[in-house]
C-alpha cells in the first residue's frame, strides 16, 4: 500500500487506540478497541497475512471482545464517573504519559534508524491458510499442543474462580 | 511500498498507548483492554517482521499470541468476577488491602 | 591418615551435644552429667595430643587430610603445631570447668544450654586445628551461633541487643574475609592448583596493593574478634549480658580466635602487607592497652571492668605478635593462654558473687574478705595474675612481649609499658573496693564462701596460674619451632637467621660484625616501617 | 670486677625456699596458731643459718669469688634466656645476712607484738612470703629473677600495709604503695629492656648479671645514661626517693614490725642494692651518677625537714627513713657504693631498733601513736627507753655508734669527690636528723605522761619476746659500725675492702684520711648542736616550739602539710586521669564509637521503614515503576 | 506427515500434564481431598522416578525446540521435587481453607508442566508458552481461596502485572525475531556473530530482561511480589517463591547464558545493576516487615539478587552457581514456608512475626527447623545457603566482579538482621501462640523435616550437588 493509505490507517489506528485509553465509558472503550482490532486486521491484510487477519476478526473482535462486553454488562458497569475523579494524582498520570511517550519515541526512533532492505517478494500463498496451517502443524506442533493445555487451564480457572460461592 | 520501519514505529506507538492505558485507567476491565491493545501492537510487529523476512513464523506466533490473549482474558475476567463478589468494585486503586 | 585423634577431639563435643539433646527435659542433672563427661573426655584426648606432640619440629602434627569438595579444592585438613596446640588445650581445659560451674548457674533450659556449649566447643576446636581456609571459615562462623544463643537466651536484661550486636559485628567482618579468601584462592588458582589448603596458599604471589586489601579484609575480621580498639564496643555489652559460662568462654577462648587468626593466616599469608601495616597495628595495640585500662578503671560494673581489661590485655598480645620476632610472638601466645586462664577465672569469680547477690555493681560489695576468706584469697591470686605479677603466669607473657616488641619498636613498647601501671591501678582499686574495707552492706555479711564445686572449678585454674608462672619451659619449648617457622615466613626475605628469632642482635652481626646491636635494632625497626 | 672464681653450689635455693615453706605452712594450717608462731620465725632463722654457712664458704674462697646455684632454666624464648639462679658474692652476702638476720629478730618480736591479733597466721604468712621475695631479690643471679623479688616484696608490702583491711585508709595506703612502686617498676623494666638489647651479643639476649657486666662496654654513652636513669626511676620508687617517696609515710598504716622490717630495714633498701648491683652501668655514665647524687641529697634534706614537725611516732621514723635512704643514694651518686651498702646495714640495725622500740611504746600505750599523748615513759618502759636511746644516738651519728661511721664515710666521699655542696646538704641534714630524733626521744620518754588516765594506768613494758630483739639490735647498732672504720684507724674500712671485688675501690681523690677526720669533727658538732637544740626546745623550755611555730607560721604550715606534695599529685595526676577515663568511657566509647556503630545499623533499618511506603498497594503505581525500569534498560541498550 | 517425535524428550512433560488432566477428571467425582492429594503425590513421585531414570540420556524433539539435556533434567527433577513438597504441604491446608482440591492439584500440576517446558525449551516461542501455562495456572492458584479478599487482590495484582510483563516479553521476542529471523536459541546464538542489527537485537534483549526480571522478582520489577506472596494461600506462595522463581531462572539462564552468551559484554552491566538493586532493596525492605510471609517475599527478592550476581558473572561458573543456588534456595525456602503453614491454623493464620514468640522452646521441632532455615537463608555454615553464597561469590570473584561480591556479602549481613530477628522472637521472647500438634499434620511436618534435612545435607556435603550443577549446566547443546 502506499504511504497515503498507511498514513490514513495509522492515524485511524492511533486515534481509536487513544480512544480506548481515554474514553471515560468502559463500553465506549470496548467499542473503540473493536475498531482498533478491525483496523489492525486491515493492516495485516496489507502485510500479506490474510489468515491472521481473518483470525483477528473472528477470534479477537468476535470472541474476546464479546467476552469483555459480556462481563461489563454482567457487572453492569456503565460510566460511574470514576474516571473523572481521576485516581493516582496528576503527578502520577503525568509520569505515566511521559513514560509511555518516551517508550514510543525511543522504539520508533530505533526502528526508523534501522536500514531494512526492501522485503523480498513473498512466495505464492504466503500468509494463506495452507501456509499457516502447515507451519502450525509441522514446525509448531508442540506449541500448538501446549495452547490446548493453556486453554484447558483457562477454562478450569474460569470455572474455579467464577463459580458461585460453594459453602 | 511502505518501509517496514513505519509499521514497526506504528506498533511501537500503539504499544505505548496500551501501556499508558494500563497505567492510567481506573476501571480494571479497561485496563485489560489496554493490555490487549499492547498484545495487538506486538502482533503487528511480528507480522511486519514476518513480511520483512519473508518467513511465515511471525504470523504463526501471532496465532499463539491470540490464543494466550484469549486465555488471559478469560482468566482475568474470572478473577474480576470473583473479586467483585467479595467487594463490588472494579477500581484498580481500591485494591489496596495488601501494602507496605 | 592413620591417626584420627584430632577428629576425635573436635567431634566428641558435638556428639555429646546431640546426646544431651536426647536427655528428657525433666532430668536436667542427666544433661549436666553428660555434658561434663563429654567435655572431660575431650580434655583427656587433648592431653594425649600433647603427650604425643613432638617438640623438635615446626611441621604440623597429627595431620588429617581428606577430600571434601574436590572440584573447589576444599579439603578436610586438621593439624596442630606449637601455636595451636596450647589453644586447643586451653579450650578443652576451660570447657569442663565452665560446664561444672554452670551446674549451679544455669537452671532453666539446661540441656539446650549444654547443647550450645558443647557445639561451641566443637566450633572453637575446629577453628584452631583447621588447616583448610574454607574449613576454618566454616568453624569460625559455626562458633557464632551457639555463642549467640548462649548470650541471647540465658543472658541478662539487654541480652537481645548484646547478642545481636555481637553477631552482626562479627558477621560483617568475617564475611568480608570470606570474599578475601575466595579472591586469594582464585589468585592462587592461576598457578593451576585450586586449593584452600593454607599450607599451599602460604607464599602465593600477590601484588602489593592486592596484599594490602586482602590483609585488610583478614585483619578486620580478626581485629573485631580480638577485639582491637576501636572495634571493641561489642565486647563489654556481650560480656555483661552473657551468663557466666558464656563470658568465660568468650573471654577465655573466643578472643584468642582473633589473635590466632592474625598469627596463622593474616600475617604469614601477606607478609609484605604485614610489614606495611605494622606501625598502624602497633599504634592501635598501644592505644588499646592504655584506653582499655583507663576505661576499665571507671567501670561501675565488675563484668564491664573485666571486659575492658581484656581489651587492654589483648592489646599486649597484638603488640607481641607484631613484634614479629620469636620472643614477642612466643610471649604473645603465652599471654593468650594467661589471659584465657586469668580472665576466665575473673569471670568465674564475678559469677560466684553474682550468683549469691544478683548484682555485679562494685558499689554493692566491699569488705568481702571477712565473710568470704577463701574467695578473697583466690580472687587475690587471680587478680595479681592478671596484673602480671612476677611468679604468676601473667608476668612471663607480658615480659616476653615487652622484650620482643622492644626489639621491634621502642616507642610502642615504652608507651605500652605504662599499661603495667594502669593495669595495676584499676585492678587494685577494684579489689580494694570489693574485698577490702569495711562491710558496707549487711546482706554481704552472711554470704556463703566458695562451695566445694566452685573450688573444684577454680582450683585447677589457680594451680595452672602458678605453674605457668614458675615453670613456663615446657610450653615455650613446645611452641618454639613453630613460632620460629612462622616468624621466618612472615619475615620472608630476611632469611633464616633473623627468622630463627636471633633478632637484630646477630642477623646483622652476620652481615657486619661488632656493630653496636642497638644500631641494628633501630635499623630493623626502620626496615619494618 | 666480673670474672672472679665461680663456686657452683646447690644449697642457695634453700635460703628463699625455707621462708616460702613457712608461707605455705601458714596458709595451709591457718588455724594452728602455735604451729605458725613457731614455724614462721624458725624458717627464717634456719634460712639465716644456711646463709651464714654459705657466706663462710665465700669468705674462705679467694676474693672476688662467688657462689652460684643455677636452679633451672626459667624463661627461654628464642635468643632470650633467663634462669632461676642464685649467687652469693660479697654484696649479696651482706644483704642476705641483713635480711635474714634482722628479719629473724623481727619475726621473733612479732610473735609478741601480734599475739592478740586474730589473723596472726595470715600475718606470718605474708611476712614469710616477704622474706622469700626479698631473698630472691638479693640472691638473684639474673635481673629478671631480681625483678621477681622486686615485685614480690612490693606485693607483700601491699598486703601487709593493708593487713588490717577493714580500715579503708589502710587498703588505700597499700594500693598507693603498690601503684607508686609500679611507676618505678615501669622505669626499671624499660631500663632492663634497653640494657638487654644493648648488651645483646652473639645472638643471645640475657639479663644474667655476669652477662651484663661482661658486655656493658657495648653500651654507647647515651644508652648508658638512658639505662641508668631508667633504673634510677625504679630505685626511686622502691627506695622512696623524690619524687616517688610519697607512698612510704602512708605505708606506716601497717603493723609496726612490718614498718621495721619492710619499710625500714630491708625492702626500701632494694633500690640501693639494685644500683650497687648494676653500678657498672652507672659508672659508665657520669651524668647519671650526678643525677643520682642530687636526687639522694635532695631527698635526704627534704624528708628531714618534714620529720621536724611530725607528731606521729611512726611518721617521724618514716620520714627519717626516707631521709636516710637519701643518704644512701647520695653515697651511690658519689660512687661510694660500698659506703651506701655500709649505711644500708647500719641503718637496718638502728632503724629496725627504733621502729621496734616505737612499736613497743605503741604496744605499751595500747595503740597510741601520737607523741603529744606520751611522755615520761622512761621509768615505765626502761628497756625500751635504753634501747631507743641507743638507736637515737646511732642515727644521730654519735661518735662510736654505727650510724656515725657509715654516715661520715658517705659525707667523706661526697667531699672527696668534690661534691662540696652535696656535702653541705648532707651535713646540715645530719644536724636536722639529730634534732628531730632527739625531739622524738624527749617527747616520748621525758616530761609527764600526757595520755588519758585509763590508757595511762596500764602502760607496761613489753614482754621479753619483744624486748630481747630490741637489746640485740641495740648491741648491733653500737658495734655494727666498727667493721667500717675510717682509713687508717685500726683495721680501717674492712667492710669496703670486703665489698671491693664487687663494687670496686672508690677513690677519695687527693684528699687523705686527715680530711675525713676533720669532716667527722664538723658533722659531729652539727649533730650535737641539733641534739642540744632539741633538749632546749622540748625539755628546758617546752613553750618555745609553739611560739616558734606561731612566729614562722608559713614555714611551719608548709612542713606540717608535708609541702602538700600528696595534694599536688592528686590534683595533677590522679584527678585528671580519672576525669580522662570517664571522658573516654562516656564520650568516646559509648557516644562516639558505639554511636557510630549503632548509627549505621539504625540508618539501614530506618531506610527500610521509609522505603516500604513506596509499596502503597496501588497496582498501577507498581506498573509505573515497572515501566520506568523497562525504559531504563531499553535506553541503556540504545545508547551503548 | 507429522515429523518423528523423540518421546523421551517430552516424557516428563507428558506425564505431568497428563497427570493434571487425570487429577482434574477424578476431582469431578472424588471429593476426598486426601485421596486426591495422595493421587497427585504418587503421580508426581512416579514422574520423578521416571525422570530420574532418564538421567544421562539426551533427547531433543520437535526439531530441537524441546531438548532433554542434563540442564533440563536438573530443573525437571528440582521442579518435580518442589512440586511434591508443595503438595505435601497443601494436603492439610487445602481442606482447612476449603479450596477445591481437584482443581487445586490439577492447576499445580499444570503449573509444573509449564515450568518443565520452560526448563527444557530452546525456542523462545516455547518458553513463552510454557511461561504462560505456568503463570496463568499460578494466577488462578493465587486467587484460589476466593472467599478471601486478600486472595482475590493477590490474584488480581499478579495477573495485571503479569499480563503487562507478557507484553514486554512478546515485544522482546518480536524484536529478536526481527533482528535474527529466528526464535530458536541455537540459531540466534550463531546469528549473533554478524549480519544482525545490533541495536534491534539489544532492544529485544532488554525487553526479555524486563520480562524475566518480572518473573524472578528482580528490582524494579518486583513490586508485585510482597503483595502477592502475602495475599496468596501460603502453600501457593511457597510454590511461587520456589518453583516459579526456579523455572523463571531456568529459562532466564538458558536464554541469556546460552542464547545471548555472545552478548555478555553488552548485558552484564545491566544485570550488574539489577543484581545490586535487587539484593539491596530486598534486604533493606525485609528489615521493616512485620508479616512473615511478606518478609519472606522480600527475602526471596534478595535471593533473586544473589542469583543475578551469578548470572552477571556469567560463564560456566556463573551458570553452575546459579543452578546450585536455586537448589539450595529451594530446600530452605520451602522449609520456611512450611513452618509458616505449621504455625497457622484454621481461622488464625498467625502470620505476624510476633506470633512466633516463644515457639522455639514450646515446639522444639518447629524451633529447630526454623532456626536451620533462617540461618541457612542468612548464609551461616555449614548450611545450604552458605554453600550457595560461596559458590555465587566465587563465580563473581573469578570473573573479576569484586565490588559485586563485596556488596553481596554486606547484603547478607543486612539479611542477618531480619532472619535472626525471627530467631530472637522464637527463642528469646515469651509468647502464647500454640501450634497444632505434629501428629495432626503428618504430611506438613514430614515436608518440613525433609526440607531441613536437605538443607543440612547440601550444606555439609556440597561436593556432589556442586558437581551435579556444573555438569548439568555444561550439558546444554
Walkthrough of the structure:
The complex is a heteropentamer of chains A (167), B (100), C (529), D (640) and E (477). Chain A has 167 residues and is an all-alpha fold. Helices cover 73% and strands 0% of the residues of chain A. Chain A is built from six helices and no strands. Chain A has helices spanning 3-22, 26-46, 50-74, 90-113, 129-138, 141-162. In chain A, helix 5 (129-138) packs across helix 6. Chain A starts with a helix and ends in a 5-residue tail after the last helix. Helices cover 77% and strands 0% of the residues of chain B. Chain B contains three helices and no strands. In chain B, helix 1 runs antiparallel to helix 2 and helix 2 (28-53) packs antiparallel against helix 3. In chain D, helix 15 packs across helix 22 (494-503), helix 18 crosses helix 23 and helix 19 (420-445) runs parallel beside helix 23. By secondary structure, chain E is mainly α. In chain E, strand 1 (59-61) and strand 2 (66-68) form a beta hairpin. In chain E, helix 10 (234-259) runs parallel beside helix 12. Chain E is globular and about 70 Å long. The two termini of chain E are 27 Å apart.
Helix content, binned percent of chain B: over 70%
Provide the structure class of chain A.
mainly alpha
Helical proportion of chain A, percent range: over 70%
- Low-pLDDT windows of residues of chain A: none
User: What gap, in angstroms, lies between the N and C termini of chain B?
Assistant: 54 Å
Spell the H/E element sequence of chain B: HHH
Shape summary of chain A: globular
Q: How many beta-strand segments of chain B? A: 0
What would you call the structural class of chain B?
A: mainly alpha
Query: Oligomerization state of this entry?
Result: heteropentamer
Q: Number of helix segments of chain A?
A: 6
Overall mean confidence score, pLDDT of chain A = 85
Mean pLDDT of chain B: 90
Segments of chain B where pLDDT lies below 50 for 5+ residues? none
* Rg of chain A (C-alpha, Å): 20 Å
Protein traits:
heteropentamer; C: 529 residues; mainly alpha; two-stranded antiparallel ribbon; 21 helices; 74% helix; globular; disordered C terminus; E: 477 residues; two-stranded antiparallel sheet; 19 helices; 1% strand
List the helices and strands and how they pair.
The complex is a heteropentamer of chains A (167), B (100), C (529), D (640) and E (477).
Chain A: H1 3-22, H2 26-46, H3 50-74, H4 90-113, H5 129-138, H6 141-162
Chain B: H1 4-24, H2 28-53, H3 57-86
Helix pairs in contact in B: 1-2, 2-3
Chain D: E1 6-8, H1 14-28, H2 33-60, E2 66-77, E3 80-88, H3 90-113, H4 120-139, H5 143-161, H6 168-198, E4 205-206, H7 209-215, H8 221-238, H9 247-251, H10 256-265, H11 270-277, H12 279-283, H13 286-307, H14 313-333, H15 337-364, H16 377-380, H17 382-396, H18 402-416, H19 420-445, H20 453-457, H21 464-479, H22 494-503, H23 513-540, H24 544-551, H25 553-560, H26 565-611, H27 619-639
Parallel strand pairs in D: 1-2, 3-4
Antiparallel strand pairs in D: 2-3
